[in-house]
Write the structure tokens for this entry.
Amino acid sequence: MARLQLEQLSPLIAELYASIATPAALPLALHQLERLLDVDLIHLMINSNDQRHTLLNVYTNGAFLPAAESYEQHYSGIDPRKALLRQKPVGEAYCCAEYFDDAFVSRSALYQEWLIPYGGRYVGGGCVMRNQQQNAHLAFHHFLGRKPFDQDKMAVIKLLLPHVVQMLQLREQTQALRERAAIGLHALEHLQYGVAGLGEEGELRYANRQAEALLPQLADDVRPGGLLRDGRLYRLLQQCRLLGHAVSYRQPQANGALHCLLLPVSRHVMWLPETDWGSYHTRYLLILNNTRQHRVAPASQLRELFGLSPAEARLAHALGSGQTVEHYAAANCVSVNTVRTQLRQVLQKTGESRQPDLIRMLMLIPPL
């Protein structure tokens, strides 16, 4: 293959990786690769390991599509190339002409009844995915009348296959993240309380429907793009950044209060790698609630939100659930003075000044 063509390969490899973000672009990238390599067809297939489900099937040449159905229904099960691929490592290229000579082809039902009648003849490629759930193969075709793949073309295929392996691995990981994100967003849209994502300086990155309805009630703190620098919520964000745990306050309203809870994202979205934290846009979650909860957040959540000790978190949960200091002390075989000392620590860490304010705040924290 000429040097100029090899140089043209780099942008097409980039297009393959770009298709991770835009899956619909993958057929076009493979079609461009087909033209550059001067092959008649590129076929990418991903199957479940039990062969019962085809998860992805891309043909760059529509003329070969009529053959696809009969292959899946019958000839896939007698394809000798599959047994060969199972013996080869993922990403290793092969050329069928090196394994199946003319004598073998003349006796093979796959070749004589299916591949050659549909115009096919020579194939180069390899396995590009193999795991517990699925396997994938990438095949480059020369149709009947053309010669087998030469060394130069096989060298390019060998160069391409590791990139396709990596692309499919990233595609699978990205798809899993997309699914998790879609489920999370769907759940957020149906919460009874508002959830907004904020950037490092209070930029509004996301708001669910309930947050969009509640944010206008904080006109002194919020502008369309995020938090006002001279507002109370922005000062709360700075306090949250300094302390490293959740902080909250209540905005009085005619029919009660709007409770605002601000917490760092990294402490709660545990699947976000801390090593990549600098690249994330959303640094804080703002949770808005104007309804009294019937269930108090569990002690483990309160401990995480406010940096409470286990004993302080248990006390806060008990008080929010309706217990008195005296009842809690008796039930846990500790002195009332010890409980009052723990209560002072809870008040300090949550930013509340009185026990009734603490209980009201606890009743407004959505259990997560």
